[in-house]
Design brief:
137 residues; mainly alpha
Length: 137
């Protein structure tokens, strides 16, 4: 599938903001009515869901896209670009799934579970390491 950056970005942003608004207002109303929903658990789970959606599509970014991982290794060839973005999608998917599951399984540790999102920087570190390795050979 070809990725048209401008059209996809505009359509995603056009739908993302109203959907998030509806979700937020639903959470606020449900919490006020029942008093049982922990808002932070739901909000952090929505963040995890948003990251999961992005992770599912990051491998489809065209070579040289401004949204991708851009360093010496990933920009060296189309194969490297695809490799790094496949790794990125996998790691981001795992991190977001961990955030969602941990928030629902251990709601008392909701804030601490966001540490999983820090690991989203791993693909950039991996790509930099591969670039240094490529330069040595």
């Amino acid at each position: 599938m070809l990725w048209d950056e401008k059209a996809d970005t505009n359509s995603v942003l056009g739908w993302l903001i109203p959907l998030l608004s509806v979700a937020m207002y639903s959470v606020i109303f449900a919490a006020n009515l029942t008093g049982r929903i922990q808002i932070l658990v739901l909000l952090f789970s929505l963040v995890g869901l948003a990251v999961l959606i992005v992770a599912a599509h990051v491998a489809e970014l065209p070579f040289g896209s401004r949204w991708g991982v851009q360093d010496r290794f990933s920009m060296a060839s189309d194969e490297n670009w695809i490799h790094i973005h496949m790794v990125t999608g996998g790691i981001w998917g795992l991190c977001s799934a961990a955030v969602i599951l941990s928030n629902w399984l251990w709601p008392q540790n909701t804030g601490r579970m966001m540490i999983w999102l820090v690991l989203m920087g791993v693909p950039g570190i991996y790509s930099h390491w591969m670039g240094r390795r490529m330069q040595e050979h």
